[in-house]
């Protein structure tokens, strides 16, 4: 038997390794965004000073922006700034990018978190039930439902959703996070604690406003949840099929355990191990998948921030947003890695 | 001897016969999967529509006719109605299939090839080459795909070629991973050693002996990715970063129809249905192919 | 006294290329004795063992004229009653503890699961019983093993845990499916003697499935030899070396003997006719 004297040590060591590799990945991300920033055809000097600047002004600005330094030095400065949470200044608003991103990000986070919660709540049971009755009507139905989720263009689905549930049926609120009536009251009555509208309104006890916010978020979150569910149910099904064929499942049955316990305790606990990575991946995917949805639902999130900046050539904002999304992505990867090792005793 | 007997002969006389027999068996298995056949049918319809667009489209896809603007579907002469410039939507969708196929074609000719080269080189040489190449792959994998594509298009400028480039640049890493994994399994096999002993160089071994072994799994991935490519391309078009109007790209058409969503719903709905149908077709076909070619990886 | 009698058992798998019969009309009966089933891989011996527990999953199907355990026909028993038999009265030890123990459940939780869930026993009582069971399979440090994860156990240790787990409810019949094949040779004897002891002292019936003729002849009272889903010969274990059936003789001839001639071992002669008898 191999009982380590300090069972946590290998775990910490592995976590350290993961951290190191993620730091490298983040460095790579910065190199890529730096390269993108340097080859951008929009000249940053002209972007700031406008077309009619004199040669003298341009030279002065180039020196100020450090564009005359050697490239490695420019990258060093860039790296230094990013590490010190300086992502530059938005050309459009002349505000620090990080501050703006901080304001926009919670809306995206709220949307994709809600969607992931729905996706897991429906996707995991659907996958498990499909795997335990392969070929059944239920299984066929979830497979098809999932395939449709995979195949449908999310921006189009959003438009159709708006047309149907808002335009025709009037069941949900339209674009935006609140009706315009509440929008005005919001800034006055609700203190911005988390910048997430459902949480903040609940904390302030503004239940009318909360209900209105729910009616607005339910459609975009539901659409994203469909995508997430498509992915999660499909992976759950395949993992579960694999686990249900394992010998320990037979052991549980030999012990006389009811089928429900065999499936939901023995099978699912083992399925959860690889599933953690899948859920994290789908969460990360929703964070960026929200780009298109946000554009349509006028959702003041990061995706919309980036696309808006993109259309007017505000590169610091685009790249800053990209770095933040990338960092969150990397962070989620790390989190799933750690959770994976916590869930699987063999990996500890 | 009938064709069927020749194909299913348990004792094939030649390598070609055995290969044809294998393919025939796989086709028989594929054919039993109704959903996969539906996918194949949709894909064939797309290809036919792209080839014969000029002959089957009732109208010129670009020609404007302001007198006929925003006609609802089933109007005589305009089965799917017209858009805000009076252009026939059905004709635009038919011509749009050419753009879609062109984009998919360009991406699957570039990204998998790049991934294949990087993956096989990394897997064959191992050591620091492997470490560096796979680190780069990991970095690209860690990127949010759509956002990286957006940033790239912002740098390269709008337009179809740049959209293709951006999609290709963001979609090669999974192929590199797959190719590397396959390479690792064949690298130390005896027949590779035999080729090496005959004096073949690394390039020759990789090109002639390793890459063919990686092809099947890469091809499976490509079929499964095609729907994703279509959706991303349409998304870029929708955001105004891909194909530019007045070209009848489906994403662009949806974006144009957005303004009249509540009054003239068909303008945005019809091209969206086309995207959905085609990407569903690719997904169904890819699923079926994977079940046939790689029963173990069925997920 | 007959504990289990099986008549004309058939296991069929419906595959893409038509039905495949894994077990074809096997009959045997068993008292509180040790019955060995031997055969090559694919001879249907594992399927026969699992059929008794009715644990063949679709696309597999079990059919039998009768399969009577202690007066109850297992073929006609509804699933809940069948479940009540499993574990409590009929148990099974499988080949490799690496796969047969749940990797994400602590050993203690797996040992007590049956007692807690099936017999609604209190946590404390179940724990005491589990510790006693671990001691019965000669595990020296049961407290520690209770807290261990399956992957932290060696193969021999894992198989002892498995035996302990299956013997806790004191079943009347134990099916041991190649219980030592995955273990090191040095550990095999130890695990076998533990198993032997427990079976003897508790007076239970045992179906011992193995491909190892010598092991079976030493360990069992009676032996069934299976080939391609059929029983080709049934004989007392001590007479095994005098087997009459050509297949059994063939199997015996393939065993290397210390001090025997140094000629190559003969290849097994398989005749399709035996499967049709």
SSE diagram, text form:
The complex is a heterotrimer of chains A (348), B (299) and C (277).
Chain A: H1 8-39, H2 44-49, H3 55-65, H4 71-83, H5 97-132, H6 137-151, H7 154-168, H8 180-189, H9 197-204, H10 207-244, H11 247-254, H12 259-296, H13 302-311, H14 315-343
Chain B: H1 3-8, H2 15-32, H3 34-56, H4 89-125, H5 127-142, H6 145-156, H7 160-171, H8 173-187, H9 190-197, H10 202-238, H11 250-257, H12 266-293
Helix pairs in contact in B: 2-12, 3-4, 3-12, 4-5, 4-7, 4-8, 4-10, 5-8, 6-7, 7-10, 8-10, 10-11, 10-12, 11-12
Chain C: E1 4-15, E2 18-30, E3 34-38, H1 45-52, E4 60-63, E5 66-69, E6 72-73, H2 79-85, E7 90-93, H3 97-100, H4 107-118, H5 123-136, H6 142-146, H7 155-167, E8 173-177, H8 185-202, E9 205-210, H9 213-219, E10 222-227, E11 230-236, H10 246-253
Domain ABC transporter (chain C): 4-253
Protein name (chain C): ATP-binding cassette domain-containing protein
Keywords (chain C): ATP-binding, Cell membrane, Membrane, Nucleotide-binding, Transport
Using brief descriptors, characterize the structure shown.
heterotrimer; A: mainly alpha; MetI-like fold; 2 domains; 14 helices; 77% helix; disordered N terminus; B: 299 residues; mainly alpha; 74% helix; 0% strand
Task: Describe this entry's structure for a reader.
The complex is a heterotrimer of chains A (348), B (299) and C (277). In chain A, 77% of the residues lie in helices and 0% in strands. Chain A is globular, with a radius of gyration of 24 Å. Chain A has helices spanning 8-39, 44-49, 55-65, 71-83, 97-132, 137-151, 154-168, 180-189, 197-204, 207-244, 247-254, 259-296, 302-311, 315-343. Chain A has 348 residues and is mainly alpha-helical. Chain B is mostly helical and 299 residues long. Chain B has a single domain (34-293), classed as MetI-like (MetI-like fold). Chain B is 74% helix and 0% strand. In chain B, helix 2 (15-32) crosses helix 12 (266-293), helix 4 packs parallel to helix 7 and helix 10 packs antiparallel against helix 12. The longest helix of chain B is centred in the middle third of the chain and has 37 residues, at 89-125. By secondary structure, chain C is an alpha/beta fold. Chain C has two domains: 4-89 and 172-276, Rossmann fold, CATH 3.40.50; 101-168. Chain C is 35% helix and 25% strand. A six-stranded mixed sheet of chain C has the order 7-8-9-3-10-11, with helices on both faces. In chain C, strands 1, 2, 4, 5 and 6 form a five-stranded antiparallel sheet that branches. The radius of gyration of chain C is 19 Å and the shape is globular. At the A-B interface, helix 1, helix 6, helix 7, helix 10 and helix 12 of A face helix 5, helix 6, helix 10 and helix 12 of B.
């Amino acid at each position: 038997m191999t009982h380590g004297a300090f069972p946590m040590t290998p775990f910490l060591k592995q976590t350290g390794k993961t951290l190191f590799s993620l730091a490298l990945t983040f460095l790579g991300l910065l190199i890529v965004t730096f390269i993108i920033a340097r080859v951008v055809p929009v000249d940053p000097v002209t972007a700031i000073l406008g077309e009619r600047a004199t040669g003298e002004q341009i030279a002065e600005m180039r020196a100020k922006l450090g564009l005359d330094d050697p490239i490695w030095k420019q990258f060093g400065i860039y790296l230094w700034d990013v590490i010190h949470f300086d992502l530059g200044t938005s050309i459009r608003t002349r505000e620090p990018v990080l501050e703006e991103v901080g304001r926009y990000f919670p809306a995206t986070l709220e949307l994709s978190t809600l969607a992931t919660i729905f996706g897991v709540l429906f996707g995991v049971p659907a996958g498990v039930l499909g795997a335990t009755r392969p070929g059944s009507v239920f299984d066929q139905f979830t497979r098809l439902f999932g395939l449709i989720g995979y195949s449908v263009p999310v921006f189009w689905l959003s438009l159709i959703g708006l047309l149907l549930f808002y335009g025709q049926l009037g069941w949900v609120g339209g674009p935006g996070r609140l009706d315009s009536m509440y929008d005005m009251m919001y800034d006055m009555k609700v203190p911005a604690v988390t910048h997430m509208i459902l949480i903040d309104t609940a904390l302030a006890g503004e239940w009318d406003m909360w209900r209105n916010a729910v009616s607005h978020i339910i459609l975009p979150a539901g659409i994203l949840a469909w995508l997430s569910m498509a992915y999660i149910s499909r992976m759950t099904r395949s993992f579960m099929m694999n686990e249900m064929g394992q010998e320990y499942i037979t052991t549980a049955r030999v012990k006389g355990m009811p089928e429900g316990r065999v499936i939901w305790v023995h099978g699912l606990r083992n399925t959860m191990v690889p599933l953690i990575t899948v859920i994290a991946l789908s969460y990360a995917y929703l964070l960026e998948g929200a780009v298109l949805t946000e554009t349509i639902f006028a959702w003041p999130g990061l995706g919309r921030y980036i696309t808006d900046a993109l259309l007017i050539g505000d590169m610091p904002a685009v790249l800053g947003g990209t770095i933040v999304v990338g960092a969150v992505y990397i962070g989620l990867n790390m989190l799933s890695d750690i959770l994976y090792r916590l869930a699987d005793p063999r990996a500890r | 001897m009938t064709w069927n007997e020749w194909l299913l002969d348990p004792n094939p006389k030649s390598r070609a016969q055995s290969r044809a027999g294998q393919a025939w068996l796989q086709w028989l298995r594929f054919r039993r999967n109704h959903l996969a056949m539906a996918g194949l049918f949709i894909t064939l319809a797309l290809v036919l529509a792209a080839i014969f667009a000029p002959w089957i489209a009732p109208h010129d896809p670009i020609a404007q006719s302001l007198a006929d603007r925003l006609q609802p579907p089933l109007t005589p002469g305009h089965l799917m109605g017209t858009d805000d410039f009076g252009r026939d939507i059905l004709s635009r969708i038919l011509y749009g299939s050419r753009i879609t196929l062109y984009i998919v074609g360009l991406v699957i000719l570039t990204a998998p090839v790049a991934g294949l080269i990087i993956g096989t080189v990394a897997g064959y040489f191992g050591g620091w080459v492997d470490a560096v190449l796979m680190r780069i792959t990991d970095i690209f994998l860690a990127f949010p795909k759509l956002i990286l594509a957006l940033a790239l298009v912002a740098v390269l400028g709008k337009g179809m070629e740049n959209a293709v480039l951006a999609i290709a640049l963001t979609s090669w890493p999974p192929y590199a991973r797959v190719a590397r994994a396959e390479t690792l399994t064949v690298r130390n096999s005896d027949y590779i050693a035999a080729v090496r002993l005959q004096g073949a160089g690394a390039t020759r071994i990789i090109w002639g002996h390793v890459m063919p072994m990686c092809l099947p799994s890469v091809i499976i991935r490509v079929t499964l990715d095609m729907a994703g490519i279509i959706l991303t391309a349409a998304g870029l078009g929708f955001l105004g970063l891909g194909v530019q109007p007045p070209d009848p790209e489906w994403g662009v058409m949806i974006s144009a129809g957005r303004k009249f969503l509540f009054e003239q719903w068909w303008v945005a709905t019809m091209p969206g249905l086309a995207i959905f149908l085609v990407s569903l077709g690719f997904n169904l076909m890819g699923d079926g192919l994977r079940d046939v070619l790689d029963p173990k990886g069925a997920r | 006294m007959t504990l289990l009698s099986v008549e004309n058992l058939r296991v069929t798998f419906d595959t893409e290329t038509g039905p495949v019969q894994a077990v074809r009309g096997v009959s045997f009966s068993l008292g509180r004795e040790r019955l060995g089933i031997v055969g090559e891989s694919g001879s249907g011996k594992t399927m026969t063992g699992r059929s008794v527990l009715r644990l063949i999953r679709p696309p597999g199907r079990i059919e039998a004229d009768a399969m009577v355990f202690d007066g109850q026909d297992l073929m006609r028993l509804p699933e809940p009653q069948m479940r009540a038999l499993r574990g409590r009265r009929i148990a099974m030890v499988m080949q490799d503890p690496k796969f047969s123990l749940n990797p994400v459940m602590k050993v203690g939780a797996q040992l007590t699961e049956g007692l807690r869930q099936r017999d609604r026993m209190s946590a404390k009582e179940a724990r005491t019983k589990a510790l006693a069971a671990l001691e019965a399979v000669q595990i020296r440090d049961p407290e520690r093993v209770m807290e261990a994860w399956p992957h932290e156990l060696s193969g021999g240790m894992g198989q002892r845990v498995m035996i302990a787990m299956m013997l806790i409810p004191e079943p009347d019949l134990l099916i041991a499916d190649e219980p030592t094949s995955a273990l090191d040779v040095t550990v095999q004897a130890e695990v076998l003697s533990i198993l032997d002891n427990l079976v003897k002292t508790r007076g239970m019936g045992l179906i011992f499935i193995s491909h190892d003729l010598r092991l079976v002849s030493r360990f069992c009272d009676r032996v069934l030899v299976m080939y391609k889903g059929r029983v080709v010969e049934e004989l007392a274990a001590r007479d095994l070396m005098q087997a009459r059936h050509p297949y059994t003789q063939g199997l015996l001839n393939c065993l290397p003997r210390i001090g025997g001639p140094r000629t190559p071992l003969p290849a097994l002669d398989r005749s399709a006719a035996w499967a049709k008898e």
